[in-house]
Write a structure and sequence with these properties.
Layout: E1 4-10, E2 13-19, E3 26-31, E4 50-62, E5 66-73, E6 76-83, H1 89-96, E7 103-112, E8 121-132, H2 150-155, H3 157-160, H4 164-186, E9 190-191, E10 197-198, E11 210-213, E12 216-220, H5 225-233, E13 238-246, E14 259-268, H6 273-303, E15 316-318, H7 319-330, H8 344-358, E16 362-366, E17 379-380, E18 383-384, E19 386-391, E20 394-401, H9 406-415, H10 423-426, E21 436-442, H11 443-451, H12 456-459
Amino acid sequence: MSDYIYYNKLGGTADLTVIRPFSGLITVFIWEVYMKKIYFNELKQYLGKEITIEGFVDNIRNLQYVQFLVIRDINGKVQVTIEKNEQNCKLNNIVDNLTIESTVKISGVLLENEKVKLNGMELIPNNIVVTSKCLDELPLNYKDSNRALIDTRLNYRFLDLRNEKNILMFKVQTCLINAMREFVIKNNFIEIHTPKIIGTASESGSEVFEVKYFDKKAYLAQSPQFYKQMALTSGFDKVFEIAPAFRAENSNSYRHTTEFTSFDIEISYIDSFEDIMNFEEDLLISGLTAVKEKYGEEIKKLFNVDVIIPTKPFPRIKLEELYKELKDKYNFEVNYEDVGDMNAEAEKLASKYIKEKYNHEFVFITDFSPKKRAFYHMRENNIPQGYDLIWKGCEITTGAQREHRYEILKNQALEKGLDQDIKFYLEFFKYGCPPHGGFAIGIDRLTMLLLETNSLKETMFIFRGPNRIEP
């Protein structure tokens, strides 16, 4: 009878188990089918051992009697030392023709050497393989971003991202999103994935991108708002989504983009928009705590920013009261077109005021004008039951309790002239819908404020704006 073979691949090794039926014997063979990549922040555990490393050539020093390479990976750097002699002739020749930013695979013995400034260790190689050669001079010095215009950096974003600050930025963003995702899953949220091609330009407040959809017109979704609410009418109770959103706004400010990543939340069976604010406090505290624990020291070193974990509750202030305080303290007068809402100047001064009064980085602003809020925000005494959350002088969230009662919602849509455009949406509320609310956070803007970078152009992996659709 044939042998039964079981194959299991775990932790960088493959276990091949051969079971011979009826023999009563089980023989297990373990073969290494691929080598686990060694990252440079793990090197100390390999001192005195022969290892293989891979990475970019960060620097080359070709001296009279010795050659030095500095090899870089995503977590650090290591020195490779090659003496010039007959034994190393082949290696010396490879280094003579090597260029900075090429990628290499090097095998050798890792030795401790206190004279080496780079972490007190060096790799003595016995084999060097150039896996990819950098053929041209770099079009920008990515190590010093101040020496290149932002447009040049964006044109060569694949090089700009090699900067250690940029690499850390996306590690931090990954940590932040992961902690927030874990928090909502722990609180029994369901993750949904809503369509980004929609049939109607339905949501008020921003322009939409029109696309050709076979023989019809379609649009890129500004947000998953309607579909989040549909999920709650389906009985999903609590949902979240992390996905792109699109805004056809011809704005070239530091905090606007035409495509961004949004972290959306919607929660059923709330009593008030206060429940939504309380949840957002906990969500942000969870995310920032994870970032501070894992990357706080590196952020301080590279960005000179202290990650501050906010205390609860975040300060809350009504818009009219805020106007009065800003007038009294900073002689601020709101522009006529912005009455009932916030503008960029008001947001900056609001943060300044809250920092001075409460020593807090966050503030919830409430009681906006219904003319300035979406039709689906619930109103009480004609006051929208929602808020803006301001952090470091910039709005990061608009949240609210939603109107879930069909007739009232229909009338509020009619008030804004949206009844026909949102006919499909109103259907959701004819067959029972729990009281609910939610919010969205722009991940790219959140990262920008956390690390205090100059604009979204630096924070986003690939930036999209009115004048930029490449690379």
